[in-house]
Design a protein that fits this description.
Number of domains of chain A: 2
Structural class of chain A: mainly alpha
Largest interface: A-B, 96 and 96 residues
Strand content of chain A: under 5%
Radius of gyration of chain A: 22 Å
Helix content of chain A: 55-70%
Number of strands of chain A: 3
Largest sheet of chain A: 3 strands, antiparallel
Oligomer: homotetramer
Number of helices of chain A: 11
Order of helices and strands of chain A: EEEHHHHHHHHHHH
């Protein structure tokens, strides 16, 4: 007895010989030249085109996440590029794989906590608060909240995370601000990590281009290998 | 005898307690609210902020590449999400891994061919020409060249690929147009695949969000499994 | 003020001009020709060479996990290979990325539950029990427990999972048997997913080789694309 | 007009309620307890069960490739694990992604060159020859050729690579020996990289387990970040 097939469907895109439609919009005539890359990401996440204020705020949030210097992700990307320079897409993918619970997860945690109206006062460790370097304020959060005010999106979620920061005497870091702003824009917390993933893909392309001209992976590898196994070798 | 260490350095980003600098620009004050996500990608690739015309053209190029419906990449992403929904970054990475020589490689091939002034007439198969569906024109190329004219970037590389298309009686497809436009913007052909990789990361996040609400991976898997092994099983 | 460096070290391998040592063993003289690939995996996981019985059981466990036909992982691998045939390592990686909480996680769950002596009776859904096809027994579990008896490793964890299966009237599936056997061998539950990952890497190489000779990815893609976007297109 | 569907099929595995068949063999009764993990890999690659000599040689080849200490792959794996400890499969995948043209490609190059009977004398750089540390011999190659002699597989490909090594006054390294031995076993050069990929998946699981107990990724990251951006920061 054969299993009964269920239909599959997707509403993201379709095409005919003279037209490509993405999320219900004509790609050539309604999207190209009209939406910037951040607007397009907004369209993919929320299913509609942002207005001018949403565009400004969402682009700022995504731009914040593009580049953070030599992170574990950037190192994974550069190590992969060293072994497989013919596959830059694999080097970017390797870097994205580390965007898990430890780093990007924090942003998602903030959005979840705020959107579900969690009892934050009782939490021992609040995601989105504290930063090892940026004290007494994180300049990114200050600026993001400023843009939120300008665009009319500084609302209850922003107030809440700033309040909590004051209570806990900890800086609201960039992931805290972005998590709160995602709530203001009505983005589901489950989609928040995706903003980080797409933004970092851009940053990791930058690392590949720099690694091609000014490499560090080989040197980092040799140093690590020398030191890591040094104690194991018999003394001469 | 110990190996002599060589210094490593990166010029992408650095920070102090009150400042984050990316590509020489103050992130909070010179980038956030001023650059959109496509401009930021331009900055990462070319090391400088685009002017208004460059911004319009580059954003349109990147936006073109975001979403193509149910591609092999989208299927890989959705299959991965089915098994590891807790790791959306891994699902995006799985989809990026197929952006190799067959699909995105074509765009890179166009840029290399044009920038190195290759003898195209003698080539049997020219990258960037021909499309199985979009005939007699690819509406994306038409629109991208239109934006190139508006922004003053319709130059010798665009003319060349359009000329070759006419000679070979093949449509200049979107990868052909984007490859040519990358040359017009002075982007090294080695960086061209990166534009596709970053754009598709955005599109693949969209596929994950759709898969979460309206899944197809399980059904596609069951159909494939049933059919693939049917002939192997003993008849009953 | 500079951060104080901490030393790094690894005990996995080191080498001198005439010797390579892996996990304390001379690779050329004590490992090659003496250990099979499963024994080597045992050495990597447990830090010691298995005896004859451990070798037989562990190899059987790992071999069980190598190949399962057209799974979501196999489809992700084949889709990736379609786009990037020059990077077979990326196609294998794409397939591994889906070995998350849904499929391989179950094996890990069994090992955790048994090794932590959880109150299984009260659990609503017990990992490692039940199978959509293999009823009334999973032939792999039957055989693995048989090998466990032969090798002297059928102990309290095996008895426990079989007992629970009887109580819940569900078959002990292969992940249930392997989870229990990992406990019998003293393998930490945190290492159990790794056995699945290494085994599936072998199986996925097999899928790439088959895809190269007898492809299915292109056909699966075209079918999915046609159907998924059919309803979106305007009727003609 | 609808596209006509083509059938898909796979000969790798199928199952009925009481049986799982892999590559034509009954998994429970003909494979488990009879084949070790290397034999299973042989079956997946060559489609048949190895005899005793083939088993010994093939297992030795695969075992050689499992672990090489702190390589770029191992660093990518550890960096990924640092950010996403909940996804060990992603950490293994990240490490595999660097097994491209630079490292594992050499083994494939040897097998291709030997099996296609290339004019090696005229080649400037011969894959599989030379090693930065192991001189005047690579102990792995010496041992692998010894096992090849024992098992009756030291043939024309082994002789050829050893001859070339003498002519070029370079050591035949492990990738050179394994490439030649793959030819002796009748393994297609296109399948050779797969042996490296599966073996390294095992080694990378070992790195994750070590990183969990004795971490180095965080320290390596902090060192790299400090140094890389030091010169960029304004002097105080």
């Amino acid at each position: 007895m054969a299993r009964k097939q269920k239909p599959i469907k997707s509403e993201l895109a379709w095409s005919t010989p003279d037209k490509i439609v993405v999320r219900g919009k004509d790609l050539a005539n309604e999207i190209l030249g009209h939406l910037n890359l951040g607007d397009m990401a907004f369209l993919m996440i929320l299913g509609r085109v942002p207005d001018k204020n949403e565009s400004k705020l969402f682009n700022a949030m995504a731009v914040t996440l593009v580049e953070h210097g030599i992170t574990p992700s950037a190192i994974a990307t550069r190590m992969t590029y060293l072994g497989a320079p013919e596959s830059p897409q694999a080097a970017v993918a390797a870097g994205l794989l580390g965007l898990g619970s430890v780093f990007v997860g924090s942003m998602e945690g903030v959005a979840k906590m705020l959107s579900e109206n969690a009892d934050i006062e009782s939490m021992k460790r609040v995601p989105g608060l504290g930063h090892p370097i940026h004290k007494p304020v994180d300049p990114r959060s200050v600026r993001l909240f400023e843009i939120a005010r300008e665009t009319g999106f500084y609302g209850k979620y922003c107030r809440r995370i700033e309040e909590i920061g004051k209570q806990k005497k900890l800086v609201v870091n960039a992931t805290g601000a972005i998590g709160a702003l995602a709530c203001e824009l009505g983005i589901d917390w489950r989609a928040v990590r995706g903003i980080g993933v797409m933004a970092r893909a851009i940053g990791l392309v930058g690392h590949i281009l720099e690694e091609a001209k000014q490499p560090m992976a080989l040197e980092l590898w040799e140093r690590a290998e020398d030191e890591a196994s040094e104690q194991q070798r018999p003394k001469r």
